[in-house]
């Protein structure tokens, strides 16, 4: 359980810095999009690492993280470039 | 109907114990819907700008008032609206539309100071702030105040005069509302007339240029009627029936809310039934989407340079 918690602390750190960078990049769409892109990539990597260590990694799990990451990025891009 | 809802929204043996709404093909379908929405809203805007557009209310007097409010709050003198600087700002805005760029210096190397001196304002110090695609005057000034370089211009004690141009047009294929703010202090304390142009050394430079390369936009001749320029570009107000940024925000948050709700239902049912399956971590997905939603909530329309 302690091991699992440390992964979630990692995820929260990724999210904290991602959200912080997007907020700090106000009125700078390029920076906001870059921050969102990096956060999404970090999330996908976090998912892969998490499931690798949990020993339940599967191709369809990787695809799921990729799709969720891309969806979140497209949500952000839709708002940034409206 | 009940079967459809159970299959689509809850984990069940008919959907391999994962709500159909969270399957890969469903997620891909959401991406497709978003792409169609983004494309469709732009096409609809071009066809029916009065129905579907960008609500804008930016006025010269509000910009001047907000600028001076900031200065008075810091014990500085109020800036006087100067028609020559407004004319220079209008010329700069037109040049950006005509030559398809969004920067302090044009692709041909023309600086803001050339617009200022070209209009006949001979300065000891001068500065320029640019903004585009904001919805309100206050939004423009707030964004400038949040940027150290733009704020420096707003609260520089040496400035005496200010000019504005607010212009709507098409910049690089995108409908754009440009705001140009030009500051100055006349050389020797006297503002020169348009007929006594004399280039002087630039003292203040505030340039963080962005490069653009397409050419579109308005082609108003600035030399034809210089005396009416500042009146023509003193406000942009548009009130379409439906505001694109509002609709877009609603759709995006509807999607995020929908995904989070399905993930929570899916996670709760699976935890209750103690189903063993191979999927991503539901709590992680919820946290990630919530984080992105918080970030998206803070995003405001408008860019400064």
Notes on the structure:
The complex is a heterodimer of chains A (82) and B (305). Helices cover 85% and strands 0% of the residues of chain A. Chain A has helices at residues 2-24, 29-53, 59-80. In chain A, α1 packs antiparallel against α2 (29-53). The radius of gyration of chain A is 14 Å and the shape is flat. The model of chain A has no long low-confidence stretch (mean pLDDT 93). With 305 residues, chain B is an alpha/beta fold. Chain B is 46% helix and 16% strand. Chain B is built from 10 helices and 9 strands. Chain B has helices at residues 2-9, 24-47, 60-73, 83-99, 112-119, 137-146, 148-154, 229-232, 244-273, 282-298; strands spanning 52-53, 56-59, 80-81, 123-132, 161-171, 174-186, 235-238, 242-243, 303-304. In chain B, the strands form 3 sheets. Chain B has a 5-stranded mixed β-sheet with strand order 3-5-6-4-9, with helices on both faces. A two-stranded parallel ribbon of chain B has the order 1-8. In chain B, a hairpin with a 2-residue loop joins β5 (161-171) and β6 (174-186). Residues 190-231 of chain B have low confidence and may be disordered. Classes of the chains: A mainly alpha (82), B alpha/beta (305). Chain A binds chain B through residues 8, 11-12, 15, 18-19, 22-23, 26-29, 32, 36, 39, 43, 46-47, 50-51, 56, 58, 60-61, 63-65, 67-72, 74-76, 78-80, 82, and chain B through 24, 27-28, 30-31, 34-35, 37-38, 143, 146-147, 244-245, 248-249, 251-252, 255-256, 259, 278-281, 283-285, 287-289, 291-292, 294-296, 298-304.
């Amino acid at each position: 359980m302690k091991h699992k918690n440390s992964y979630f602390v990692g995820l929260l750190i990724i999210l904290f810095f991602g959200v912080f960078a997007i907020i700090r990049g106000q009125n700078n769409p390029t920076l906001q999009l870059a921050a969102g892109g990096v956060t999404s990539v970090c999330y996908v990597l976090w998912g892969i690492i998490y499931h690798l260590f949990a020993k339940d990694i599967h191709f369809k799990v990787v695809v799921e993280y990729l799709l969720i990451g891309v969806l979140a990025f497209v949500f952000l891009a839709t708002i940034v470039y409206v | 109907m009940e079967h459809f809802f159970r299959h689509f929204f809850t984990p069940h043996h008919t959907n391999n114990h994962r709500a159909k709404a969270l399957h890969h093909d469903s997620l891909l379908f959401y991406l497709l819907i978003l792409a169609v929405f983004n494309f469709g809203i732009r096409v609809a805007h071009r066809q029916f700008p009065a129905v579907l557009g960008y609500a804008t209310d930016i006025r010269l007097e509000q910009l001047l008032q907000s600028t001076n409010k900031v200065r008075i709050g810091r014990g500085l003198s109020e800036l006087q609206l100067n028609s020559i600087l407004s004319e220079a700002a209008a010329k700069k805005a037109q040049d950006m539309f005509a030559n398809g760029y969004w920067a302090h210096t044009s692709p041909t190397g023309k600086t803001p100071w050339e617009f200022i001196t070209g209009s006949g304002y001979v300065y000891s110090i001068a500065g320029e702030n640019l903004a585009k695609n904001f919805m309100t005057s206050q939004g423009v000034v707030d964004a400038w105040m949040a940027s150290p370089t733009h704020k420096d211009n707003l609260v520089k004690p040496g400035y005496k005069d200010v000019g504005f141009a607010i212009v709507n047009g098409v910049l690089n294929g995108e409908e754009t509302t440009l705001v140009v703010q030009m500051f100055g202090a006349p050389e020797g304390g006297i503002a020169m007339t348009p007929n006594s142009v004399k280039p002087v050394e630039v003292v203040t430079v505030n340039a963080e240029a962005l490069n653009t390369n397409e050419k579109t936009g308005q082609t108003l001749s600035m030399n034809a009627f210089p005396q009416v320029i500042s009146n023509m570009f003193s406000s942009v107000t548009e009130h379409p029936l439906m505001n694109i940024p509002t609709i877009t925000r609603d759709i995006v948050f509807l999607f995020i809310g929908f995904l989070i709700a399905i993930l929570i239902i899916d996670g709760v049912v699976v935890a209750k039934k103690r189903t063993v399956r191979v999927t991503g971590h539901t709590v992680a997905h919820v946290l990630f989407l919530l984080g992105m939603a918080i970030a998206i909530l803070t995003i405001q329309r408008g860019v400064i340079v």
